[in-house]
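tool_call: predict_structure(chain=1)
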Amino acid sequence: LVAPYLCYMRQDKAFHPGEVISQRVIGELLATYFDNVITVDAHLHRIHELSQAIPVKKAINITATDPMAHFLQAHVDNPFLIGPDSESEQWVSDIASHYHMDYRIATKERFGDKDVVVTLPSADYQERHLVIVDDVASTGKTLLAVAKKLAEYKPSSISVLVTHALFVNNAISELHAINITNIWSCDTIPHQTNVISLAEILAQELTNLISN
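tool_result:
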C-alpha cells in the first residue's frame, strides 16, 4: 500500500472519554490486508516507528523535507523558518539543515480545535521572509495564530508550507485575509496549494522495497 497521507494516524490518543484511538484500529486493519505500507510524514508524535501502529513486514514513513528544502531554496530569498510548536521541530530543523536556514520554534497552547495561543521565541523577524512550516494544516487555526504574531514584527513576507493540505472550511480565506503571501503544500492530498510533487521520492522508495 502506498498512501501518501494516512489520515487515521492523527488520532493517536483518546481526547475524550469513549473515543477510539483510530491509529491502532486502522493500523491493525491495514496489517490484515497489506504486507508493506509506505506513507509520508505520518503523525508519530507519541510513538517512534510507523511499525508500532501498523504491524506489517515493512512500515515505511518517508519525509518530504528534502523536496521542501529544495523548493524553498529556489523560491524564497534567505528564508527564515518558523515551527508553530515543538512537534513541528523535527521537520523544520531538517529542512533548515539542507541550506543552513535560520529557524525558530514557537510554543503552543491548545484550548480546543479552534482556540490556540502561540508564543514566539525572541528573534529579529523584521524585514525577513518568514515561512511557517508544519506537517499538516486542518482548520489552519495554528497557522493563523502564528502568522498574526509574526505580522506584528513587520516582516517582508509571511508564507506557509505544509506537507499535507486539508485546509477545511474557511482556512484558506482566513489566511489570505491577514495577507499571507504564499500558501504552499506537497501533493499528498490534491489541493489548490500543491506546488511540490512527491512522486519521485515515493517511486524511489517503492522501487527499493520491490528490489529488496
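agent: The mean pLDDT is 92. Proceeding to next step.
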